[in-house]
């Protein structure tokens, strides 16, 4: 049997995950469900290490990373997260398993397949490295942009930008009150400056804020059209390869 501990602070999500796990593999045995850092540390201190831990990042009393600082974890761990793009990037850099919420059956099945392949090989989780990666990424997030307005400079808060776009090899931003200003950065550079949960690169020439999207039209299975406020004079289409990730981004 695969002894599995679920650490999740939302009861419906924990029950759903338990049902999905047992439906995918009849060898899964749920040996415990905890919902806080404190309860998880206590469980791990008093019980035999499980084979697998399904671990939510944000718990009721803090981030689950602190569990690893209080008790030695020798189990294979799959993190689940609904929103933290920084954590996702940190996991990818450290080759650690993760699933985006809401957890899909296909994603869970792929993670279980990876677990079976790695079962018996201790998973090394460098929590300090993960946290450092997250903090470094947060430090690069731009909170404001400086633009030229004639002979003056104007500071624009990122929260007051509706979208960024390229036009004739130049880059511009549009504020929420429909003012357009040129920028010296490329869209690639700007994309790296923005908080991933709030912004999305819909195609090569357009980055949109979640707050600026007022309508989403499905044109076909792989084509999505956006309408923004302020209005953009050209058609905004989510490129085909980006459509699945765009749908996931909308659910965060």
Structure description:
With 252 residues, the chain is an alpha/beta fold. It has 2 domains: 2-138, Rossmann fold (3-Layer(aba) Sandwich), CATH 3.40.50; 144-250, LytTr DNA-binding domain (OB fold (Dihydrolipoamide Acetyltransferase, E2P)). 31% of the residues lie in helices and 34% in strands. The chain has 8 helices and 17 strands. The strands form 5 sheets. A 5-stranded parallel β-sheet has the order 2-1-3-6-7, sandwiched between helices. Helix 4 crosses helix 6 (127-139). The longest helix is centred in the first third of the chain and has 14 residues, at 11-24. The chain is elongated and about 70 Å long. The two termini are 34 Å apart. The mean pLDDT is 87.
Share of residues in helices? 25-40%
CATH class call of the largest domain: Alpha Beta
Work out the helix count.
8
Task: List the uncertain runs.
Answer: none
DSSP E strands, number: 17
Number of domains: 2
Order of helices and strands: EHEHEEEHEHEHHEEEEEHEEEEEH
The dominant shape is elongated
**What is the rounded Rg?**
22 Å
**First and last CA, distance:** 34 Å
The residue-averaged pLDDT reads 87
Sheet with most strands: strand arrangement: 2-1-3-6-7
Question: Can you say what the CATH homologous superfamily of the largest domain is?
Answer: Response regulator
SS-based class: alpha/beta
Examine the secondary-structure arrangement and name the CATH architecture of the largest domain.
Answer: 3-Layer(aba) Sandwich
What CATH calls the topology of the largest domain is: Rossmann fold
| Percentage beta strand | 25-35%
Q: Largest beta sheet, briefly?
A: 5 strands, parallel
